[in-house]
Amino acid sequence: MNGPNFICIGAQKAGTGWLYEQLRAHPDFWMPPIKELHYFDRNMRTPRLGAEDRFDEALRESVDQRDKAFVGIAREIFADPEISPALYARLFEVRGPLISGDITPGYSTLSDEMVALITGSFAGAEILFLARDPVERAWSQISMWVRHGRIPRFDPADADTVLRVLSHPGILARSYPSKIVRRWRQRVAPEKFHIYFFDDLKTAPAKLRLSILEVLGADPGKGSGNLPAGHNAKARLEKLRLTNEVKGVVANFFREELEDCSRELGGPAAGWPGRYGL
Predict the structure, then answer these.
(1) Total-model pTM
(2) Among 53, 108, 149, 201, which is least packed, fewest CB within 10 Å?
(3) Does residue 165 sit within a domain?
């Protein structure tokens, strides 16, 4: 059925915001005015992150008529409590001949049944996963939660407190990329599943951008407006200080996962355990 050309399932805090900005500004794409659609995981969402608020914000900030048409369609579709691939496909009607997709890191935590529904309904869609070292990723998520007031501020040098925060279900659900990749790979044709690495975003953003654009069928020679490949809108956000001592504690917490990532993901992940002397 018609629908997205691609679905990016995360990971959270691994460059999905960067990817959205690059594609949103690229002339070969029409991207929804809301970065994270959260269609398939909307029943897991909290009221403060409801659809209506996001639609209103998108209308305020957009001057593109396609965006306005999208919001009208989306209001209708999200009002239906049923999770329907056919309704979801309608969210991309306004794209015309352009490439379009859904970048929702929350999809990495979907049930096996929902993963099967998505991949069975949109077998032609490219599935993208941006992987990040679990230690760095979890610490970035914790920093975000503190900024947003989702958890109280705490002493980041207190190892016992850090371990308690790491054990929060909302942190754990997103902190095991080897398991996420394994679950999705079981249901996606090998040529349709693509892993990219935050490591490459830090060291070679132009090369990473080119490889993603080529997979999605876009012209990598075209710029994304005035955005340089390495543009990071979140670079100045406050982050908790991670001391070497606590970094070692967090690495030991994720020891088994770091080793699993080395085997399952390959690429830069092969060096993640050694980064922490494991």
Answers:
(1) 0.94
(2) 149
(3) yes
